[in-house]
Amino acid sequence: MAIVDNTLEYQEMVDTALRGVAREALETVAMKGLPSEHHFYITFLTHAAGVEIPDDLCQRFPQEMTIVLQHQFWDLTVTQAGFSVELSFAGQSRRLTVPFAALTAFADPHVNFGLQFATGKAETSAEDEIPEKAANADDDDNVVTLETFRKN
Predict the structure, then answer these.
(1) What is the dihedral sign for C-alpha 26, 137, 139, 35?
(2) Nearest to 97 by CA among 89, 86, 88
(3) What is this structure's pTM?
(4) Neighbours of 116 (CB within 10 A)
(5) DSSP class of residue 72?
(6) Alpha-carbon span 95 to 87, nearest angstrom
(7) Interior/surface letters 49-60, b for 16+ CB within 10 angstroms, e for the rest
(8) What's the DSSP call for residue 112?
């Protein structure tokens, strides 16, 4: 007789629901623009399924990357599965496509709001490497670490 695993995946359910909050915020911004001083810090796994970023950025950030949507972003499009946006890196416009399943964090520092997501099977132990890589990045305007906003 086979044993059936009937465990409910509550953490996965919660993460899916919370990613919906990030999606709804991005949908609002895509339609109406950023209100007031709101801005987003979005962290994602660079090698997760469906992520499309230029090769040079993938090499600079081999595991995780944080982007900022504030003053200089263009053509934000949001779907049920993810979002695409153009950002400037070293003076070059680059398009990134990120599935919501690849997100590890979403924050709006203007209102002290932040979400962190479990990454399940794609989870890496690189969290400690991210602040160091971000600190050494050539393009500090576009890539930052969320360590500043995390409560201990």
Answers:
(1) positive
(2) 86
(3) 0.74
(4) 15
(5) S
(6) 6
(7) eebebeeebeeb
(8) T
